[in-house]
Amino acid sequence: MHLAYPAVLAALLFCTGLYGVLARRNAILVLMSVELMLNAVNLNLVAFDVWLRDTLHAGQALTLFVIAIAAAEIGIGLAIVLMVYRNRGTSDVDRLRDSVESDATDEAAAQSAGAGADAEAAARAKKAEATA
Length: 132
Description:
Elements: H1 4-23, H2 27-52, H3 58-88, H4 93-131
Helix pairs in contact: 1-2, 2-3
């Protein structure tokens, strides 16, 4: 078998996964797209291992490590997505990013308003001491 067939298939899989990561808004679909990209890498590793006739089968061994890492990544990723969905009520990546930015600006505004209120209270207390 020629090396071109699995290489072209892996390139198509990787491009599909890359499009999914860049274009999707749902966090679960982004994770699935990352898995597609990892499977494209695995296909390349095995194809080049067979093509080079490696006696140690290093490509296949590395593929097993990539599969183990991908399983851990999807487990932790799904746990994070479920926790975020419970807390925020959405798994839309754009909304999550916007809510983090708005939370940070709201928090900064609240802190500056609190600091201003404290300064005003201190000024009033000082004025009351001066008149008493």
